[in-house]
Automatic annotation (TrEMBL):
It comes from the Bacteria. It comes from Raoultibacter massiliensis. InterPro entries: LD-transpeptidase, LD_TPept-like_central_sf, LD_TPept_cat_dom, Transpep_catalytic_dom, YoaR-like_PG-bd. PROSITE patterns: LD_TPASE. The active site is at 249 (proton donor/acceptor), 271 (nucleophile). It holds the Pfam family YkuD. SUPFAM superfamilies: L,D-transpeptidase catalytic domain-like (SSF141523), L,D-transpeptidase pre-catalytic domain-like (SSF143985). Pathway: Cell wall biogenesis; peptidoglycan biosynthesis. Residues 167-295 form the L,D-TPase catalytic domain. This is L,D-transpeptidase family protein.
Length: 296
C-alpha cells in the first residue's frame, strides 16, 4: 500500500503581542540627569545674538535659531559647534553678499529699464575676516550690530541683483549718449558720444564700473592694424573706468558725435569719446570712485 502525502496549512495570526521586555529602549531617557545637563550646556552656546550689516542694511542675523543649527553632540552628549556647518553658512552668506559683476536691473530716471552685468563696481565680502567675526562672536556672546568686513564697498546695499549705487554716469551704447545723474536722479551733465567700434576687439565693454583715476594731459597709446608701434594721442581730460585702459576722454579729432558714427568708421578702440568742452565740464565735477554704467 502506497502511503498518502499529507499537506498541512499554517494560519497567520492577525495580531501579535510584543511584551515590554522585547522593545528596544533608548539609551537615554527624558528624565536622565545627563540629558538635562547636556541641554543646559547647549543653551549656554546660544547667548550670541547679533546682526551682520552693510551700512544701514541688514544682511543676516546670527541668533539662537541660526546658532542652534551648528550645534552637534558627541556620544557623551557634550555639545559643540560643527565648524564645517558654520563655514558653509559663512561661504553662502559671502557669495550671496557679493555684487561685483552680478546682473543688475534698474529703471533709469527717464523710465528706461536697464539690465547690465559685469564690471568692477560693487560689494565684496572679506570672507576670512567674516568667519573670524562669527567665531569670536559666538565665543564672546556678541550682541548688537556688526559691520560685514569687506574688500570693496559700494554706495548702498540692497542685495544681489539690486542697484547699489547712488549718483552715476550712464553710458548708453544704443543711444550713443551719456548722462551724469546725481544722487537724486537729476541730470547734471549730458552729451552725445562715440564709443568703441562694434567688434570683438574694440567694443566698449558693458558693466558697472567706477572711475579709477583722473589725469590730464595724458598720452594714449593705441595699436592700429598692421602697425608695430602704437599711435600716440594726447588728450586733456582722461577719466578711466576699466583699469587705466578704457575711459571717458575728450576726442578733439572727431568731426561729430552721436548717431551711428561709432559703426560708420569713427568708433574708438573702446573708450568713450566726448566733445572737448563736455569732457572739460565732466572732468571738473566727476570724483574718482564715481560709478560708471555702460549698457545697451
Amino acid at each position: 500500500m502506497v502511503p498518502r502525502e499529507v499537506t498541512t496549512h499554517s494560519t497567520m495570526e492577525r495580531k501579535a503581542t510584543v511584551a515590554s521586555g522585547e522593545l528596544l529602549k533608548p539609551p537615554v531617557l527624558s528624565d536622565d540627569p545627563m540629558l538635562a545637563a547636556s541641554c543646559d550646556a547647549a543653551n549656554e552656546l546660544l547667548v550670541a545674538d547679533f546682526t551682520l550689516a552693510a551700512g544701514s542694511a541688514e544682511a543676516a542675523i546670527v541668533g539662537p535659531d541660526r546658532i542652534s543649527s551648528w550645534i552637534v553632540f558627541d556620544e557623551d552628549l557634550n555639545p559643540s559647534f560643527d565648524e564645517n556647518l558654520m563655514v558653509a553658512w559663512v561661504d553662502e552668506l559671502a557669495a550671496g553678499f557679493n555684487t561685483i559683476g552680478t546682473e543688475r536691473t534698474f529703471t533709469r530716471a527717464d523710465g528706461k529699464e536697464v539690465t547690465v552685468a559685469g564690471g568692477t563696481y560693487g560689494w565684496s565680502a572679506d570672507r576670512d575676516t567674516l568667519l573670524t567675526i562669527v567665531k569670536e562672536g559666538l565665543e564672546s556672546g556678541q550682541t548688537g550690530t556688526v559691520e560685514i568686513p569687506v574688500l570693496q564697498s559700494a554706495d548702498l546695499y540692497a542685495g544681489a541683483g539690486e542697484r547699489d549705487w547712488a549718483g552715476y554716469v550712464d553710458v548708453d551704447l544704443s543711444e550713443q549718449y551719456a548722462r551724469y545723474y546725481d544722487d537724486a536722479g537729476n541730470v547734471i551733465w549730458e552729451t552725445a558720444i562715440i564709443t568703441g567700434k562694434p567688434n570683438a576687439e574694440m567694443a566698449t565693454p558693458t558693466g558697472v564700473y567706477y572711475v579709477t583715476t583722473k589725469t590730464g594731459p595724458t598720452t594714449l597709446n593705441t595699436y592700429e592694424s598692421g602697425r608695430k608701434e602704437p599711435k600716440k594721442t594726447v588728450v586733456q581730460y582722461w577719466m578711466p573706468f576699466v583699469g587705466n585702459v578704457i575711459g571717458l576722454h575728450d576726442a578733439w579729432w572727431q568731426p561729430g558725435f552721436g548717431g551711428t558714427m561709432y559703426r560708420d568708421g569713427y568708433g574708438s578702440h573702446g573708450c568713450v569719446n566726448l566733445p572737448s568742452a563736455k569732457a572739460q565740464e565732466l572732468y571738473g565735477i566727476l570724483p574718482v570712485g564715481e560709478t560708471v554704467i555702460v549698457h545697451w
